[in-house]
Design a protein that fits this description.
heterodimer, A: alpha/beta, Rossmann fold, FAD/NAD(P)-binding domain, 5-stranded parallel sheet, 15 helices, 29% helix, globular, B: alpha/beta, 4-stranded parallel sheet, 4 helices, 40% helix
Chain lengths: 557, 138
Amino acid sequence: MRAGIFICHCGHNIKHTVDVRYLSEYFKKIPGVVVSIDYAFVCSEPGQDIIKESIENQKLDRVVIASCTPSLHGDLFRDLLKKSGTNPFYLKRVSIREHCSWVGDDIEANTEKAKRLILSGLYAASHYIPLEEKMVEVNKSALVIGGGVSGLSAALFLARMGIKVYLIEREKELGGHVRLLNKVWPSMRNGKEIIRELIDEIERLDNVEIYTDTIITNFEGFFGNYQVTINNNGQERKFIVGGVVVATGFTPFDPSIKPELHYKKDKRIVTTLDLEKGIEYLELPKKPRVAILHCIGSRDETIGRSYCSRICCINSLKTAEEIKQRYPDSFVESFYMDVRAHPRGGEEYFESLQEKGVLFTRGNVAEIIPTDKNIIIRGEDTLLGEVYEKEFDLVVLSIGMSTAFDSRALGQLLKISLDKDGFFLEAHIKLRPFDTAVKGIFIAGSCSGPKDTEESINHGRASALKLFGMLNLGYAFVEPFISYVDPKRCSGCRQCEEACIAKAIKFDEKLRVVKVEEAACMGCGLCNATCPSSAISLKGYFDSFIADEISGLLEIA
Amino acid sequence: MTDKTEKAPEVVGFACSYCTFKASEMAGSLRMKYPEKVRVIQVPCSSRVDPAFVIKAIFEGADGVFVSGCHPGDCHFIRGNYFTRRKMAALKEMFKAFSMEGKVKLFWISAAEARKFIEKITNFYNELREEKNAGKKN
């Protein structure tokens, strides 16, 4: 074995709590280690050049890179090894940033931990065998789940680039929630118009199939070849797609969860979404007194929604303006926790409304008491420290976003994870905000967290662009981490066949041994842990790799 | 930080790449702290963990081993973690004969639960530390 160890400083991220100089000196003494270098940024171009040169000059056959977590820059370093002429699966990534320098403060203990981690990585790498990635064809088609504004934007983008798109929508009509909006911030255009424009453009293209009133019933396969079964209005249909954009959006918060708000019991208590239909139907007096309550269903621990919904402050401001325009002599008071006028131009809009005479009072409303004549509101003004009690003709609840009601079921079907609030989780919050952990499945719009219309369109297009980049290549590499059987050791007990979840293991009646169907194997390694005679192994995670990794972690050095 | 005479336990963890390892990455990114003696080995699925690995880790000097995967029903490999649950239950039953059942723990931690990851492993670590230093004080 000719191993090379490359230890990254990651600027100060690793260096400040791990003695990298000591580590690189220490590993020089380990037998089998030819190169041991510490460098400021291994992922930078000069850093990559160092690795490449070392591999070429020193004929390295194992490369251990101790840096950030393996899911970051994994492909980058694998490609680097490929370019340098070694098998990319001779690479071992050791995480000494997320799992060491960032989670401990003590330099001595951290250095010791990093030493053990790298040592165990080196031990595991010493057993590595060259593996080959299998190239598979990618189906140039995409499934877009959800026909809201982000789903439509994603579908339109993909279709324009020549990808066959299947757009499915649970409701009878496309358009999602934007269709219901009278004025959409910031252009203040009608939501229906925006949706109409998108749908018109999509309908002009002939490579989009739209299914409304449809749900997904089954989903399997891998990137480039996902088999989807849908239920379209009672009819079952099947098709194969290369990738997926999930844009299932949100459900508006239902205030009837909180009975103290008296929503639906009193018609003078409405939500901002109700008001998108117009305010005429409410038959208000000439000089109405209107209260607007912020943060309904947002930033509220008691109902498990501790997040900010981002859109409701602008919605409240929009409502206040609407009322002021319709009834110039009205009295509008807004009860807020914090006004977070997020989008561009939001703060100016907030100020312009203050100038128009909308009163803003800091302090959430504690009690709503509907009487025959009017509605009494009680609460505490947290700036003045006084309790207020005021009368109003209309109470507007500025509702936030909740997750789509079936997002958990969909997440289980597509095998993508949810965050603590129930929104879909991105692969990396900063570096891969559109990807999920599953290759070829992207998230778009407010199914991944509250977003306004502008952001949803951007998110949809960005996800579509990323998916297009992957589909357009026409091929993909499948990770070679699948099981294989050593027929000499196999006793034919068929325990693995019984355990295999993917049904990838078949028994050969003639030879009395099992066989693995490579295309079906998911690479979980369950068979490997089940086999009593160690005849079946998961490539990349052999028993010997993990056993030596354990030894490396615990060895008395 | 701690008393010099106090012995610190060694903890080895097996974390599945789709849930717990992601949670541990997130815990790192959020700069949450946990004891340095806790070290994690990445496995594709918690079902890849052969009980033999747990025994090996204990033989090699680990004071505690945890195996951690996705929540039941959320497994990336559909049902892998159910197999883990059964294997670990059997292993614990075996360890009971040696009063060692406290040395093995099985956790369900999803990719978003960085805080839970920290809580679980810190609690486990503290339990082991108390056990290891039992009777030493006074």
